[in-house]
Amino acid sequence: MHVVIAGAGPTGLTAAVELARLGARVTTLEKRSGPSYLSRAVGLQPRSLEILRPSGVADALLREAVGFSGITFHLRAEEVARLPLGFDAASRLWGLAQDRTEAHLETALTHYGEIVRYGVEFRGFSQDAKGVNVETGDGHLEADYLIGADGVHSAVRAAMGLEFRGRDLPGTWSIADVDAEGWPDPTRFQGFLLDQGDVLVVVPLEESRFRVISSREDALAALPVPMDIRRVRRRGNFTVSVRQVKRYQEGRVFLAGDAAHCHSPVGGRGMNLGIADAADLAQRIIDGSTDGYTETRHPEGARVLRLSERGRKMLNTTSATRRGLAIRAMKLGAAVPPVGRAMVRRLVSG
Ligand SMILES: Cc1cc2nc3c(=O)[nH]c(=O)nc-3n(C[C@H](O)[C@H](O)[C@H](O)COP(=O)(O)OP(=O)(O)OC[C@H]3O[C@@H](n4cnc5c(N)ncnc54)[C@H](O)[C@@H]3O)c2cc1C
Questions:
Q1: Going by CA atoms, what residue is nearest to atom 26 of ligand 1?
Q2: pLDDT band, residue 267 (cuts 50/70/90)
Q3: How many Å lie between the centroid of ligand 1 and the Cα of residue 333?
């Protein structure tokens, strides 16, 4: 069996590793000329590690990842609540820059004898009952199946003629990766509620290296507490869309990951959702049960979009009532441990 995958982000690489592990031949096309050095997603959920355990990728990730010890919430500079993380399997959350996750997936792929074809773009496809003909920047490929894991601006989705329903959120978010010394509680995930309904988070990436993300245009300028920054490794801006396709499949062609759905980084779920789509699809292709793919993964995508939007609206709000409720919930979680543990489990694994 031969499967062509468009896109070597975490979704495409997971699909490639899982298909190769289960015995399929895969061709992974990536339009970039080489591996990515962008560290967008950080949070690795327990379910993703479970999925990546049989290929050995989970162990490799855990050797490098930071295990978050807790979450601290602040209102501007003032601490309002501390919740624990890692007290049971469903509450463990690890941090690792996305480029490192991708590097470990790619190493596993080469162990199965497959490589990523960098600099080769997906251009189009035609299909019939027997297979798919894939047009690339380098010629044509015959395949049994095609997976579009080519991200938010998916060319596979466009070639399928599917609408990416949803909306673009107003405003520009910002991100910065920094080296900093003396940051208090360097293994805790720190969330800050700012004025005018804005939010900011500081996420540990490795010892003395942190990610700062904010709904404001300049994350470092928006920091409400001092940070002794020694080096800014990268900074940039991004906009947020909340969208999902109605169907993930058209005959022998499938969508997975950001090509099928996207949402705000609140809750840190995008990459984890893509990894789960990819693993489900790989198993279905091997088992010959692809017809249930949309029925299984679309509701899960819709659920995560709802959850992420609920969290974003609760934190990223100009309503004093909503914000007051969010702060009361955080304080309640900190004061009543069973409530706090339930909140954390939902946040991490829900
Ligand atoms: C600032 C920020 C922070 C985030 N934090 C988190 C987090 O903490 N946790 C989390 O789970 N998620 C997070 N996310 C979301 C996460 O980064 C994405 O959900 C994830 O990258 C999606 O993976 P993907 O493989 O589906 O798509 P992508 O990572 O976008 O990969 C798609 C790949 O396809 C390639 N491609 C595109 N077109 C073609 C073509 N025509 N032919 C061949 N190749 C093509 C692209 O070059 C790219 O390499 C964050 C996102 C942002 C922006």
A1: 257
A2: confident
A3: 32
> From ligand 1's centre to the CA of 316, what distance in Å?
23
Residues 6+ apart with CB under 8 A from 161: none
CB 220 within 8 A of CB 202: no
Q: Which of 5, 17, 31, 47 to mutate to test the pocket of ligand 1 (most atoms within 8 A of CB)?
A: 31
Q: Tokens for 168?
A: 């673009």
**How far is the C-alpha of 248 from the C-alpha of 259, rounded, in Å?**
9
Domains of the chain, earliest start first = 2-42+97-169+241-313 (3.50.50.60), 173-240+314-349 (3.30.70)
CA distance 323 to 110: 48
Tell me the average pLDDT across 183-190: 91
| Atom 35 (ligand 1) nearest CA | 7
pLDDT per residue as tens digits for the range 89-121: 888 999 998 999 999 999 999 999 999 999 999
Tokens of 86: 């890692």
Measured CA to CA, the distance from residue 170 to residue 157 in angstroms comes to 24
Ligand 1: residues with CB < 6 A are 6-12, 29-32, 36, 40-43, 98, 121-122, 149-151, 155, 175, 213, 238, 257-258, 265, 268-272, 274
